[in-house]
Structure prediction request, 415 residues.
Amino acid sequence: MVKNRKKLSALSRQNIFIAVIILIIVGIILGECISVLNIRLQTQVAEAATVYDIIETRALVIRDEKAVEGLSGIAIPAAADGEKVHTGGEIAMMFPSAENAQRYAEFQELEEKHKYYTDMSNTAVGSVTDIEVLEKNILSNVNGYIRSAGRNDLNRANAYALDINDNFTRRSLLVGETVDFSSVISDIENQISAADVSSCKPTGYVKAEKAGYYSRYSDGCEGVFDYSKVKDMTVDTFSEYLKTAVEAKGTVQNGGKIISSFVWYLACVVSAEDVDGLRDGYNTQVVVKSTDTELKCTVVKGADVALSADQTLLLLSCNEMDKDILSMRLEDIEIRVKSYNGIKVDSRAVHDKDGEKGVYALVSNIAKWRRAEILYTGNGYVILSYNDPDIKNGIKLYDKIIVRGRDVYDGKVFA
Prediction:
């Protein structure tokens, strides 16, 4: 009798467990049904956006450049990085010892700091700049600092940090905060007075042989890549250049270099299929990923490809210059082949109605049909035409587009 009771008890426990599992499954199914039947209305404001067909590749920078020569002893730059210099202009200072060079460099830094803080203290609040420009500069500097630190480029990271401090100070002045520079200026003046600069002045100067732009960065490739024959470059030549640049990248010489020509080139090897949409002579936009710099370039050669070719050497020219561009050699870039400007919306917002594509816009709590042409399809989103005079009842900027909603149709009222 006891054994039967034990068996019944075990069977009851098993039935209870099965019942619980069934209740859980039923609960999940009911929850899904309720969520389907009660889809919350989700809208999105129609705003213009631009996306691109792109080519991602690694490019080699080729310039008309020459490393600074004629160095003897210890040299430090006399020109600012990225500065335009004329023929015969002083670009480096020579010192008999590293100690003298270091002391003179410290004195120069003190003078620069004194000028900086004096200028800041004399800056009128109304003439600082626009606060939106400052905030954009701060964000750009922070991004630059993070990227430079990530690449272990400590010199550039330090430069970005100084720019961040500068812009924060200017922002404080602009919003009316009082910033007292007197103690800082007085301390710098005391250090300048105590410095014995006469015993560590330069013993000579290195002067620019040609006019151009000065860069403190030199990687040893200045005499390797033939700028005069860049348009004759082949895929094989590019491969040789690329190998040299990879091995040389990261080395720095004291003298720096002079870039003589304002026009420079980006060379890269890409798939023949990728250049569909480009043509030789066309203008295109290139983004340098390490700095997010956007460059306006011209396709020199490589876009008009033979039908039998699998790859092509694409050569782009550019005439923009700054200190970051002057130090580039090997860069991961994004070439923007074609742009699409329109309204970027979630793919779920697009519907078919009477053979037409479009979306529903919420107007005074009423769903209104808006016709649209799909210009571009991305990962989970589309770019739609707007303000198109050829499309009657099309999307307009700032329409509230319905992304999700239950049983949406033209004229439906949402409470």
The radius of gyration is 32 Å. Helices lie at 2-37, 98-121, 131-150, 154-174, 182-194, 235-248, 323-326. The chain is about 30% helix and 30% strand.
